[in-house]
Amino acid sequence: MSLFRSVPLGSRPSHAGALRPEASSSKERLKKLRRRTGYSFTNCKKALETCGGDLAQAEAWLHNQAQKEGWSKATKLQGRKTKEGLIGLLREGNSAVMVEVNCETDFVSRNLKFQQLVQQVALGTLSYCQNLKQQLSTYSKGFLETAELSQLRVGPNREDSLKDQLTLFIGKLGENLILKRAAWVTVPKGYYIGSYVHGAVHSPSLGHLMLGKYGALVICQAPEEKANLEDLGRRLGQHVVGMAPLSVGSMEDEPSGEEETKMLAQPYLLDPSITLGQYVKPQGVSVVDFLRFECGEDLVVAKAE
User: Fold this and answer.
1) What tens-digit pLDDT sequence spans the chain (305 residues)?
2) How far is 39 from 105, CA to CA, in rounded Å?
3) Residue 41 contacts by C-beta under 8 Å, 6 or more apart in sequence?
4) Which of 87, 88, 164, 208 has the least C-beta neighbours within 10 A?
5) Helix/strand/coil for 104
6) Cα–Cα distance between 262 and 259 in angstroms, integer?
7) How far, rounded to the nearest angstrom, does the alpha carbon of residue 106 sit from its chain's CA centroid?
8) 53 has which bridge partners?
């Protein structure tokens, strides 16, 4: 026996919500706006109502409201200490960038939204670096501090500055956030950039961005193509993070024990019975420079060192 009773067509109850095309269309617009912006259904619904159902206007309205809220929160939170955060490291082709973005708590640094901000800073720095269009005979590196970083343009059409993005994320996360610094390196053929991030976090949604509390870029001269450069570059970066050298030094430097600050004369982190120079020499590469970031470090002290 069938569980479904046949009902004459004319006597079936009407389901207005399922049949009215305008209601269905409105629901689709709401879902689309939610997917595009990431804001709550309540806010998206309010935006569509305010803008008469126009999707583009509703998106712009949401952006402006979030921007206002972000600026308001940024003003209130200004001056609060930001010792936590993340180092972000991104490599593409013959360029690599390393950035630091700070927040108030480690809890927020683990938030995907905060990590997305770090990604935007890294992508903005990479774009800046690649647009310099330098004719390189040797490697090139540069640094950007808070004021310069804030002016970089980001987004698909480069319509927003990083400062605008920062205020949006302050509004979303409710903590004081700082675009602290960025560094970039570009190398010609015959060079290689080694990289390492301590405690690296890889998020499927963040592509090749590596995140952690410490990061290093190591610039090597490698006249020949070598199969092990990736692993060698990671080990050199690991040494820089762990041993915190202040300069590269030379292969002729005499080691001076645990207090040694010249990279090549330091005991090799993974085998203290030899120096880093002794480890590197048979590899057929030359270490020429490095960069090291430690999240939350005092930049005045770091520069003085």
Assistant:
1) 333 333 344 444 444 444 455 566 778 888 888 777 666 677 788 888 888 888 888 888 777 776 666 555 556 666 677 889 999 999 999 999 999 999 999 999 999 999 999 999 999 999 999 888 777 788 999 999 999 999 998 876 667 789 888 888 888 888 889 999 999 999 999 999 999 999 877 665 677 899 999 999 999 998 777 778 999 999 999 999 999 999 999 999 998 877 899 999 999 999 999 999 999 999 989 999 999 999 999 876 555 55
2) 23
3) 30, 34
4) 208
5) coil
6) 9
7) 16
8) none
* Ramachandran quadrant class, 267 (left: phi over 0; alpha: psi -120 to 50; beta: rest): beta
Within the chain, how many helices (H) and strands (E) appear?
Answer: 11, 12
**Across 16-93, where does the E strand assignment appear?**
84-92
What Rg do the C-alpha atoms of the chain give, in angstroms? Answer: 26
- What pTM did the predictor assign? 0.74
Cα–Cα distance, 120 to 43 (Å, whole number):
24
How many residues does this entry show for the chain?
305
DSSP string over 157-196: TS-EEHHHHHHHHHHHH-S--EEEEEEEEE--TTEEEEEE
3-state DSSP assignment of residue 67: helix
**58 vs 176: CA distance, rounded Å:** 28
Chain-centre distance for alpha carbon 255:
37
- Distances in whole angstroms, Cα of residue 293 to Cα of each of 46, 106, 175, 222: 43, 17, 22, 24
CA angle 295, 296, 297 (to 5 degrees): 95
Widest CA span in the chain: 98
Q: Which DSSP state fits 223? A: S
Residues 155-166 as b or e (16 or more Cβ within 10 Å = b): eeeeebbbebbb
